[in-house]
Amino acid sequence: MKRYDLIIAGAGPAGLSAAIEAAKCGMKVVVYDENARPGGQLFKQIHKFFGSKEHKAKIRGFHIGEELLAEAADLGVEVVLNSVVIGLFPEKEVTVKIDNHVEHVKGDTILIATGASENMVTFPGWTLPGVIGAGAAQTMMNLHGILPGKKVLMLGSGNVGLVVSFQLMQAGCEVVALADAAPRVGGYGVHASKVARCGVPFYLSHTIVSADGCDHVTGVTIGEVDKNWNVIPGTEKHFDVDTICLAVGLSPMSKLCDMAGCEMEDNPAKAGFVPKVDEFGETSIPGIYAAGDVSGIEEASSAMIEGRIAGIAAAIRLGYISEADGKEKIAEQEAALNGLRQGMFAPGMRGKMITETEEGVSISQNLLKHGFVADDEIERFPGITHSKGIHPVIECTQNIPCNPCQDACPKHCIKIGKNITALPAVDEEQECIGCGMCVASCSGQAIFLVNEDCGDGTAEITLPYEFLPLPKKGDKGVALNRKGEQVCSAEVADVRSAKAFDHTSLLTMKVPKEYAMKARFFRKEEAV
Hints:
Elements: E1 2-9, H1 13-24, E2 29-32, H2 61-74, E3 78-80, E4 83-88, E5 93-98, E6 101-112, E7 116-118, E8 131-133, H3 134-142, E9 151-155, H4 159-171, E10 174-180, H5 189-196, E11 202-204, E12 206-212, E13 219-224, E14 237-239, E15 243-246, E16 250-252, H6 255-259, E17 264-267, E18 272-275, E19 288-290, H7 300-317, H8 323-340, H9 365-370, H10 375-378, E20 390-394, H11 404-408, E21 414-415, E22 425-426, H12 437-441, E23 447-451, E24 458-465, E25 476-480, E26 486-496, E27 505-512, E28 521-523
Parallel strand pairs: 1-2, 1-6, 2-3, 6-19, 8-15, 9-10, 9-15, 10-11
Antiparallel strand pairs: 4-5, 5-6, 7-16, 12-13, 13-14, 17-18, 20-23, 21-22, 23-24, 24-27, 25-26, 25-28, 26-27
Helix pairs in contact: 1-2, 1-7, 3-4, 4-5, 7-8
């Protein structure tokens, strides 16, 4: 029987991060994963991450996955794919099905990093081909290059629903609507805003009534729900679609923890049935750890840090690193994790109604109900300025743990401070040079460069653009406002792409100057 210092179930962000930290300490590590490709969710995540440098902010998920795999390989971590851990016992014996045979291996320590599975909801027609999870749609698009459909309705306004809606449009799908039974948007406002300004309507307090079709989806009916979650008669709305995406939450895949005899709890704050763990991720069984979504649903950035902490803790337990040195390393990781767990989206804030930002600014109610900040709300946020000439306009209106824009500006025009969740503000004493690094670095695509008066009756807005084919200088079309409505004619004045922008092109459009603070997206079509 093979023996390892650390056996890890799951080669996702938590598992790989733990393997790296343990291997750095000299441990013999094996990672088992049921998929044909390691990396877990990271290779489906083509968007840029939030956080700060230590959280790998402004780096796209699949690039982070590539970095983790390369580092693990360099450290000699053994990664076994197409392998399913089918048994885990308190004595730390693991049974693994690899291809068509079963192996038994023994670990001095074990990490369970099996992640989570997508939730589903039932309605008439929910078993029709064309009803899929948002994660499945993401897999089809970003791993296999296959469109899940042409016309899609998304159910769920959490970060998964918002991010996948945008990626569906990037892939060439039409998202006809985004619905959610909840009365307000559940994910980051910046994610909602970039979906809304592309013209996708939000239907909050709405759920799916039924799906149409015989052998595949041909349409969907949604309806408004009352406070008891019952559909209100007469509020039904029908859409012709070929795909219904469900982004209705995740559930921890904690069966291995239960099988091993770990003490479990049904914890709604962690999204389900999870093992009880201490601050190092150790379960009730000494030497068995859990990290990532299996111990509570959070972002991939948090999963990576939890994995690192568990890997270091395992090294301390086996004497590969001194307790003093190990705890010093863990303290650094805990500080980084605490940074991600601040702000209005912190795990402890789930379900709470927040009316003001940390700075005392009233939250945009229109953003929560319709997915975009209204014109009469936007001016109250500190990122909105009206300087002469080109200047940044930052439409980040919630306390999100993210600060790459502060470091991206070479002239220090943008300030956030030490509190990573503080609303970004513009230092009007510093001169903007229009380099666009802030626009490209913003993970939420919430920063614009604006010249409100070019002197000829026009204004210019530079916006982040991640669609293909790229428009060209001189292309004419229409400008869309934050709601996604056509507001005026627009002409492309410039398109900039650079390696430093990491595939976020900067599109500058020229519009009548009265629309300088309203026009936020460009669509190439006949001018109005």
